[in-house]
Amino acid sequence: MIEKTIELLKKNKLRATPVRKELLQLFLSSDIALSNQDIEEQMSDVDRVTLYRTLKSFQEKGIIHRAFDGTDVARYASCSDHCDAHAHHDEHLHFHCSKCDNTFCVDEIPIPKLEMPNGFKALKTNIVVDGICEKCS
Ligand SMILES: [Zn+2]
Ligand SMILES: [Zn+2]
Ligand SMILES: [Zn+2]
């Protein structure tokens, strides 16, 4: 895990600082999307400014993506290998469990191509499914 972390940082030309290593490892080992609060609780001492800056640079590099789940809370999850600094390719739906409030990336279900009305050009489609997750049912 630590090797993958360092390799990923290197690939993205990010210096392997302790905060970056810890944050990335947290994302790679988590099967749910993480909110700022989740991250702050699980990280050892880190100041918020550094944390937000790191989250932002990870997003720009295509390491993590915003897991849009229809709630007011911003959550992030690690990206697939196809994402890079030029474009994200996280075309999967997000499942939000209304019982445990966790959000999951679901890769198994392809996002359907939706026909837009004339003059409208779709750039990104977010699909959110609300329900009860495996653990809660
Ligand atoms: Zn991505
Ligand atoms: Zn649940
Ligand atoms: Zn996702």
Structural class: alpha+beta
> In percent terms, what proportion of residues is strand?
15-25%
Question: Roughly how many Å is the radius of gyration?
Answer: 16 Å
Q: What is the molecular shape?
A: globular
Helix content class: 25-40%
Order of helices and strands: HHEHHEEEEE
Just give the CATH class.
Mainly Alpha
Catalogue the ligands: zinc ion
Mean pLDDT: 93
Number of helices: 4
**Corresponding CATH architecture:** Orthogonal Bundle
Distance between the termini: 31 Å
Q: In total, how many domains does the architecture comprise?
A: 1
Q: What is the subunit organization of this protein? A: single chain
What is CATH's topology name?
A: Arc Repressor Mutant, subunit A
If you had to describe this structure to a student in words, what would you say it looks like?
This protein has 137 residues and is of the alpha+beta class. The chain has one domain (2-131): Arc Repressor Mutant, subunit A. 31% of the residues lie in helices and 16% in strands. It is built from 4 helices and 6 strands; from the N terminus they run ααβααβββββ. It has helices at 2-11, 18-29, 36-42, 48-61; strands at 34-35, 64-66, 75-78, 93-97, 103-106, 128-131. The strands form 2 sheets. The chain has a 3-stranded antiparallel sheet. It is globular, with a radius of gyration of 16 Å. The model has no long low-confidence stretch (mean pLDDT 93). Residues 97, 99-100, 102, 133, 135-136 line the site of one zinc ion (ZN).
